[in-house]
Amino acid sequence: MKVLVLTADANTLIYHRGDLIRDLAAHGCEVVTSAAEDYEHVQKFVQSIGARHVPIRMVRSRVNPLSDVFTLLDMWRLFRSEQPEALFAYTIKSVVYGCVVARHAGVPRVYALLPGLGFTFVKQTTLKG
Questions:
Q1: What was the pLDDT predicted at 98?
Q2: Strand ranges in the chain using DSSP code E only, listed in sequence order
Q3: Which of 54, 66, 71, 120 has the fewest CB atoms inside 10 Å of its own CB, making it the most exposed?
């Protein structure tokens, strides 16, 4: 089974979902991870456990219709090219956009986890906020 793990923050692939990715790979799943960043330490970690990392364009700290179009397009291309049998998405933007795009791309199993409230509910300290 091919599983795509999608998040907005690449570092969480190591610090929060590393054990899950390792276990999926150890149980015979082909694991592909995707996030906004393409950090070398994340690439090394993901490769060390037999998975692959594919970065996409995503701005995780705000909603911008123009940049979000690129996020949606990148997700669409990713799902269509990888053809995962399951999506595990966490973080708000990955869940909202990823689950919708995955359904339209024909991903048969979609799993979502919202681990917190995200930037939307963080107390703003600036006039703009």
A1: 97
A2: 2-6, 30-34, 52-53, 86-90, 109-113
A3: 66
Q: Which residues contact 104 (CB under 8 A, 6 or more apart)?
A: 76
| Strand runs labelled E in 7-125 | 30-34, 52-53, 86-90, 109-113
Residue in the structure block whose two tokens are 């979609």? 110
Buried b / exposed e along 51-82 (16+ C-beta atoms within 10 A): bebbbbebebeeeeeeebeebbebbeebbeeb
| pLDDT single digits (tens) 65-94 | 888 999 999 999 999 999 999 999 999 899
Contact 88/109 with Cβ under 8 angstroms? Answer: no
For the segment 8-36, what is each residue's pLDDT rounded down to a tens digit? 999 999 999 999 999 999 999 999 999 99
* Tokens encoding 3: 């599983």
